Amino acid sequence: MNDSFMKGLELSGLFYEQAVRPILAGHFAQLNYSAGLIGPGSEVLGFDTPQSMDHDWGPRLMLFVSEADHETSQREIEQVLGAELPGAFYAYPTNFGEHEDGTRVMAASEGGPTHHGVTVHTVAGYFRQMLNFDPAGKMRAVDWLSVPEYCLLMLTAGRVFYDGLGQLEPMRARLRYYPDEIWLYLLAAQWRRIAQEEAFVGRCGQAGDDLGSRLVAARLVGDLMRLCFLMERKYAPYIKWLGSAFGQLACAREMMPMLRQVLEGGSWEVREAHLARAYTMAAEMHNGLGITAPLTTEVSLFYKRPFLVIHAERFVDAIRGAIQSEEVRALPEHLGSVDQFIDSTDAGRYLERLRGVYEEARAA
Length: 364
Hints:
- By secondary structure, the protein is α+β, with helices and mostly antiparallel strands.
- Helix 9 (200-206) packs antiparallel against helix 10 and helix 9 (200-206) runs antiparallel to helix 13 (268-289).
- The protein has a 4-stranded mixed sheet. A two-stranded antiparallel ribbon has the order 3-4. A two-stranded antiparallel ribbon has the order 5-6.
- It is 52% helix and 11% strand.
- It folds into 2 domains: 8-174, no CATH class; 180-330.
C-alpha cells in the first residue's frame, strides 16, 4: 500500500475521474447519473488521517441514477465495475473485505471481480433512508428537529463530482442549514441548557465536590461549543470530530483558549472565572447576530449566591420572543432538537419515534 497518505475525498474524486467515469462512458453511454461522496465517513468531513484507513475508507464513491435505471441496471453497473476496475488505484486496493463487526476494509484482490466501493442509489431513496422522510417534499419543523445534526452535516458535506441528474445538488441545498425560525428555536433551547447549569460549577465546588464541579464545567464547555456552532450557522459533527470542527469556526481563535482554561482549572473559582469570560464572548456574539435587542454581556452574581453567571435565561426569553412562526411557537417549549435532549448516538436509529416525542410533548 502507498506509504504516502492521500485525503479520502481527493482520492475518491480522482477515482471517479480516472477509473469509474471511463468505464461508465464505455459501457453505459446513455446512462444519466450523478456521482459524489457524501454520508458517513471521516473523509466526507475532511477529518480522515492514516488511522482512518483501517475501516470504511478507500477508493469509493456513490452513483445516483433514476428510479427506472436503478430498477433495471443497478446490478449490471455494479458487476461491470467489479469486472473492469483495476485491482489498485494510486496503490490503494479497490477491493474490500469485511471486519467481524461488518465494517469494510481495503484488501488486495485474489483474482476475479473486485468487491469495490462504488454503490448505486437513487437520490430520493438515499436521502429518505438517511432521514426517514423525503426532503424533496414539504419539510415540517419536527422533521428538521428529529434528525441528529451530524446526519444533516454528512449529507451536505463531502463533494459532488458530477450531477447529471440535476437532483443531488438541489437536494443538498435544501438541507444546507436550518430555516431561520427553526434556528431561533434551537438557539433558545441551547441558551436554556446553559441557564439550567451555569451556577453549578461554583455550587458543587463550594460543597467540596470538585469532581462534580469539573463535570459540570465540561458539560458547559460542550454546550458553549454547540452554541457557537449555532451562532455561526454551522452544523456540529459527531462527538469524535466536535473539537476538530470547532477549531474551524470563526470564533475559535478567541473562544478555544478560554474553554481549554476552564477544563484545566485546578479549582472551581478558576473554572468559573474562565467560564465567565467565555459567557461574555458568547453574549457579544449573540448581540452581533442582531436577532434581538442588545443584551448586557457582563456576568453577575447568581441572585444572592456567590457564583458568577451570565443569566442565560435572558437570552432564552429574548430569542423566543423573536420567533414568528406559529408552527415553531407551538413546539414544546425548550425541548430543542434531538441532539439537545438525547445524548445517545443510537437515537438516530429511531427517527420516526423521535418525531412522536414532539407530538406527545405538545399534548402533555
